[in-house]
Amino acid sequence: MRERTRQMWRGGLYLLIGLPSAVATMLVLPLLAVGVMTTAFGGLGLVVFPPMMMGLRWWAEWHRSRAAALLGVPLPPRRTSLPKGLRAQWKQALDRESRRDVLWTLQHVAIGLSAGLLALICVVGPVTTLVSVPLWWLYPEGDPMRVLVGTPVRSWDTALTMGGVQLLLLGALGWWTLPRMSRFHARHCMKALEPSVEDQLTERVDELTESRAGVLDAHGAELRRIERDLHDGTQARLVSIAMRLGVAREALDDDAGTLATLLKEAHEGTEEAMVELRDVIRTMYPPILADRGLEGAIAAVAARAGVPTEAELGELGRLPAAVEAAAYFIVAEALTNAAKHSGATRATVRLSRQGGRLLVEVTDDGIGGVDEGRGTGVVGIRRRAAALDGTVLVQSPAGGPTAITVELPCAS
């Protein structure tokens, strides 16, 4: 009984506060429309509109916190601050959460007004009945007080009976309606401002895509650092050691015996280690990428390919190092396959950027019939693309031609 009474008063207060807020929310969409239209006046809306959307976010979050408190559920935080930069602010002002905020205003006006008016009747009605019914005798004889469905009150018997019935009905209406209506309003408020399952998955994918871009940048920077350290440090020291061993071998007599043999083995072992180290560096991050960039590296690969190759390079912009390395190795592997197995007389390499994806196309006029089941280099190309969440399409009918198209995500 006591808990039910508490719920009734909490629900009534919640809905009564929601009534004027719903009236105020009716002004939101016209104000936002004005903010957009001011873009035509000196671009004022470009600066004004994002803060207006953030103000709507604060307004929606206040209602969301009230709803969560009424329902007794945790409140997952949402971003309530503007990022730096006008472009980032507009991106946030037009994101999914902002669209949910706008749709919430329509729902809040519709539900808040009707639920608030009902709460007003349930709360104010009993108070009005208690105050006005005892004063029935002050009303003129020709226009008496009326209760319930218009019953005139002309005596104390009618006032006490019909007024009491009206009071009980209003109390019962509030007792039964206010807790349910307030929870209904709160649940719909929470639902309107929380992402759907599809939106959650989409936002999660966006987060993973953004974090992957950061990882690729960090990975690329680390690859360049390791390549530079190996090239300038370890390899240089190995070269120095090999030169000294060579000088020592030249200085020894031919009859030095065991010492000469040991020096020879050490010298040859050092040179073999340098060759292996160069291979590791080229496999990790080709030095030509650091020296010439991706465009220059692809041009060099095309120039020294085993089949005459034409390179068509579009405007690529800045790419993560890992994407550059993957594109370089994909082109090199595809041209190697064309030279070894296709019998091609001509090949073409095309690189272009389409939004957040790098498109790599390698075609040749060879005999076609690529069979990945035989361990061709296409398997390695697929693995390199898959490591970056890229896609590979191979078109190689018998008789040719062969076209390998690779898409690599490169948004940073």
From TrEMBL:
Database matches in InterPro entries: HATPase_C_sf, HATPase_dom, Put_sensor_dom, Sensor_HK_TwoCompSys, Sig_transdc_His_kin_sub3_dim/P
Gene Ontology molecular function: kinase activity
Segment forming the signal sequence: none
Transmembrane regions listed in the UniProt entry: 12-34, 40-60, 109-139, 159-178
Catalyzed reactions per annotation: ATP + protein L-histidine = ADP + protein N-phospho-L-histidine
Pfam families: HATPase_c, HisKA_3, Sensor
Annotated Histidine kinase/HSP90-like ATPase domain residues: 322-412
PANTHER family reported for this sequence: NITRATE/NITRITE SENSOR PROTEIN NARX-RELATED (PTHR24421), NITRATE_NITRITE SENSOR PROTEIN NARQ (PTHR24421:SF10)
UniProt protein name: histidine kinase
Organism lineage string: Bacteria, Bacillati, Actinomycetota, Actinomycetes, Streptosporangiales
